[in-house]
TrEMBL record:
InterPro entries: Cit_transptr-like_dom (IPR004680), Diverse_Ion_Transporter (IPR051475). Its main location: membrane. It is a multi-pass membrane protein. The chain crosses the membrane at residues 6-22, 29-48, 54-75, 96-114, 172-196, 234-267, 279-296. This is Citrate transporter-like domain-containing protein. Residues 17-296 form the Citrate transporter-like domain. Pfam families: CitMHS (PF03600). Keywords: Membrane, Transmembrane, Transmembrane helix, Transport. One of its GO terms (biological process) is transmembrane transport. It is found in: Membrane. One of its GO terms (cellular component) is membrane.
Length: 297
């Protein structure tokens, strides 16, 4: 028979997730509120306290998210993603199907190493700009990018927060994770491409206008700070390499990400205040709240 502590824990847990799902409050506020209730109830009933609550936080997940947010934020400020998007559109020469395919693949690859929401927020503005220039519907391109972001994000340890938590608790190496889930991701991606081509077959027949305006665009003008971009890409490359061998070197994956973030700040001379503006603090505290909540359960 369930004890009073188990009943209270279950009520708080269910209440918190109902509150999150209802969106009456911001999800981060709901998660932190639930965490607070769990610690209060645990303290009063002597089954959970502040030290156990903070001990339940997976700092490997939080550290990895924080480090990658800083790295991506610095790269984003250089205009790199806008440059790549315009270059791909020019290679496609305005062909709607080719643009959708290339943007979809690029989004999936980016989401494998970056936060999904960040990737989509980076891609959509330039996608809309290109669509408006060519006077074509942006909806098929955006839908393809959203789908690709979810698929690509599932392919690596760092692509999605759930992946981070699973790999952290199960101690799954970065490379092992990719090798096991990679084939499924490739098949899913191929199916999605053919499905999208069928769903938007009429939209993909659109005749783009003003292609000459697109072809005249100089993608390199989108780069705002080439020295910082070069240094950032070197650090990002080094971080990815260390992700692949972190298990062999016995270095936590969060440490690798934070080392990369700190290296960029030092080498590129980025002010911490500027870099931290790109950190999604609400996301980090959302997971902090969930970790404390689940720890009480």
């Amino acid at each position: 028979m369930a004890t009073d502590a188990q009943i209270i824990t279950a009520v708080i847990f269910v209440f918190t997730f109902v509150l999150i799902a209802s969106e009456k409050l911001h999800r981060t506020t709901s998660a932190l509120f639930g965490a607070m209730l769990m610690i209060i109830a645990g303290t009063v009933m002597s089954f959970y306290d502040t030290s156990k609550g903070f001990g339940a936080i997976d700092f490997n997940t939080i550290g990895l998210l924080l480090g990658m947010m800083i790295i991506v934020g610095v790269i984003m400020e250089t205009g790199f993603f806008d440059c790549i998007a315009i270059k791909m559109a020019k290679i496609a020469k305005g062909d709607v199907w080719k643009i959708m395919l290339m943007f979809m693949v690029a989004t999936a690859v980016a989401s494998a190493f970056l936060d999904n929401v960040t990737t989509v927020l980076l891609m959509i503005p330039i996608t809309v700009t290109i669509a408006n220039t060519l006077e074509i519907k942006a909806t098929p391109l955006i839908m393809a990018e959203i789908l690709a972001s979810n698929i690509g994000g599932a392919s690596t340890v760092i692509g999605d927060p759930p992946n981070i938590m699973i790999a952290s608790y199960a101690e799954i190496p970065f490379l092992t994770f990719i090798l096991n889930i990679g084939p499924i991701i490739i098949v899913t991606m191929l199916i999605s491409i053919f499905l999208l081509k069928w769903m938007y077959k009429e939209d993909l027949k659109q005749e783009p206008k003003h292609v000459e305006i697109l072809m005249e665009k100089d993608e390199w003008k989108e780069i705002k700070n080439m020295p910082v971009l070069k240094k950032s890409m070197v650090v990002f490359g080094a971080v990815i390499v260390l992700f692949l061998v972190h298990h062999t070197l016995h270095i936590p994956i969060a440490v690798v990400a934070l080392m990369g973030a700190i290296t960029i700040l030092v080498w590129a001379g980025i002010h911490p205040g500027d870099a931290l503006q790109h950190v999604h603090w609400s996301t980090l505290f959302f997971f902090v709240g969930l970790f404390i909540l689940v720890g009480g359960v």
